[in-house]
Specification:
Layout lengths: L3 H6 L1 H10 L6 H38 L4 H33 L19 E6 L12 H8 L2 E2 H7 L6 E2 L1 H21 L3 E2 L5 E2 L1 H6 L18 E2 L3 H6 L6 E3 L5 E10 L18 E11 L4 H18 L4 E5 L11 E9 L4 E10 L3 H6 L2 E3 L6 E3 L1 E9 H11 L7 E2 L13 E2 L10
This protein binds one RNA strand of 91 nucleotides through α3 and α4.
Length: 431
RNA sequence: GGAGAGGUGGCCGAGUGGUCGAAGGCGCUCCCCUGCUAAGGGAGUAUGGGCCAAAAUCCCAUCGAGGGUUCGAAUCCCUUCCUCUCCGCCA
């Protein structure tokens, strides 16, 4: 949500920001609407003032035993006018609101211009993709060899874009999640949260998923939404609150399933468990002051990178271009892990600074002790990281010619000491 | 699912039609006194918006939300959301 006061003061800057998002200039249109709203609002308020005066006169007259017929008649008139003006104001401000809430966040100066993901700019890499002496398999083939990865059963149960993991494969998924949570809570100070997976429409609105992207979400019959990411739950923890700045930053992490309809993704990544309707993810959310959010963003990125480094998974970090960055984000870095089976870098974490964009939608504010003035907080979110995709990466990067897979050392304590997944050995689990 | 109770400022808690944006208490901030591991006195302490070049000791709105009755509503009526209690059901 954009700040109308800021647009009033900086209409040309607003149009430039829209242009970077590929949107037509609309500041003058918006300001026209804004003027209309304020015109009827001011007029209505002046009448309300008069009405309040008359009410006081009537009250005094009653007490004094005097007649107040004239005042009562005037109020009757004014009431009608107020109702009319308020109806106009409501309609106009509704229209203005509809326009404002559909405009994406202003992007940061460092966001590269671009039409789509091919224009994202790589900033750095870590690790080196392995040189395989054999043709590396993808995770689907490895799943067949190892066992414990069953797309047929999942299709029978639920349809496409689901998977059933079992045995050591299921345990590996859980090990990954536990490992990530332990890193973020013990080493980086994130507070672990276990919260609802079903949320109200207002909550989805707060993070910017509604109303524009309703099609990406699963809605329940009682008009709730399955969360597409724990960002929704964690970020909204501060909705409609005024936080003392001394308590910032707030850092939350959660392991949750994520549900995505993948509308519009038909035909994309149909093979394997790369793009599912349901997957596990460890999410990181920070709430900070405007001053601190850029540094918090870097910190959050290093938290996510640490996970991949400990898992010895090669990755690169890219800055999303104006054509690829999400609706609510001001600046997004994606971490892309190397998948030997695809010979591609694939997103495994997305780290966004949303600045005050979500905070406005949620009415999440903060205040310093001295100034007493409120302002909107900055919210940041990032995957720390996607568990399903991490599982894929481990299988593909850790594979051997016979199809067995080395388990990263940091996960072995979570796997009962198991060092390798052996062909046919993934199910049933041992240890 | 059935029956009942309730939602007031950071917190507690008054207030059942008329200077109520809201008594009182707690907490917090500042000042004074005292003087030391206590206490006392005073002042201040909601949010959003409008107007304005800007601001205000100017104006409007807000007592869960929305609508209604009334000259006037925190107070009455309706709807809705939420919380709590009991019963039922249940991981």
């Amino acid at each position: 949500m954009h700040d109308i006061v800021w647009i009033r003061a900086n209409p040309q800057a607003f149009d430039e920001a829209c242009a970077r998002r590929g949107l037509p200039p609309q500041a003058s249109l918006i300001l026209d609407m804004d003027r209309k709203v304020r015109h009827s609002r001011t007029a209505a308020q002046e009448l309300q003032q008069r009405r309040n005066e008359l009410t006081r006169l009537i009250s005094a007259a009653r007490r004094g035993g005097r007649d107040a017929a004239a005042e009562i008649a005037e109020v009757g008139n004014i009431k009608q006018q107020i109702a009319t003006l308020e109806a106009i104001e409501r309609e106009d401000s509704g229209k203005l609101h509809n326009v404002l809430e559909a405009i994406p966040n202003v992007v940061d100066d460092t966001v590269p211009e671009g039409a789509d993901e091919t224009d994202n700019v790589e900033t750095h890499r870590w690790g080196n993709p392995r040189n395989f002496a054999f043709e590396p398999r993808d995770h689907v083939d490895l799943g067949v060899i190892l066992g414990g990865m069953d797309f047929e059963s999942a299709a029978r149960l639920s349809g496409t874009r689901f998977v059933v993991l079992s045995g050591a494969m299921a345990r590996l998924e859980r090990a990954l999640a536990s490992f990530m949570l332990d890193v973020h809570t013990r080493e980086f100070g994130y507070v672990e949260v276990s919260g609802p997976l079903l949320v109200r429409p207002e909550t989805a609105y707060g993070t910017g998923n509604l109303p524009k992207f309703a099609g990406d979400l699963f809605r329940t019959t009682d008009n709730r939404y399955l969360i597409p990411t724990a960002e929704m739950t964690l970020t909204n923890l501060v909705r409609e609150t005024i936080l003392d700045e001394d308590t910032l930053p707030l850092r939350y992490t959660a392991l949750t399933p994520c549900f995505r309809s993948e509308a519009g993704a038909a035909g994309r990544d149909t093979r394997g468990m790369l793009r599912q309707h349901q997957f596990w993810k460890v999410e990181l959310v920070s709430v900070t002051t405007p001053e601190d959010s850029p540094e918090e963003h870097r910190r959050m990125a290093s938290c996510a990178e640490t996970v991949l480094q400990r898992l010895a998974l090669p990755y690169r970090v890219v800055t999303l271009s104006t054509g690829d960055i999400g609706f609510s984000a001001r600046l997004t870095w994606d971490i892309e892990v190397w998948l030997p089976g695809q010979k591609k870098w694939r997103e495994i974490s997305s780290l966004s600074n949303c600045a005050d964009f979500q905070a406005r939608r949620m009415a999440a504010r903060c205040r310093t002790r001295d100034t007493r003035k409120t302002r909107f907080v900055h919210t940041l979110n990032g995957s720390g990281v996607a568990v399903g995709r991490a599982l894929i990466a481990i299988l593909e990067n850790g594979q051997h010619e016979d199809g067995s897979v080395s388990i990263p050392e940091v996960l072995r304590p979570y796997m009962g000491g198991m060092e390798r997944l052996h062909p046919g050995g993934a199910a049933p689990v041992d240890g």
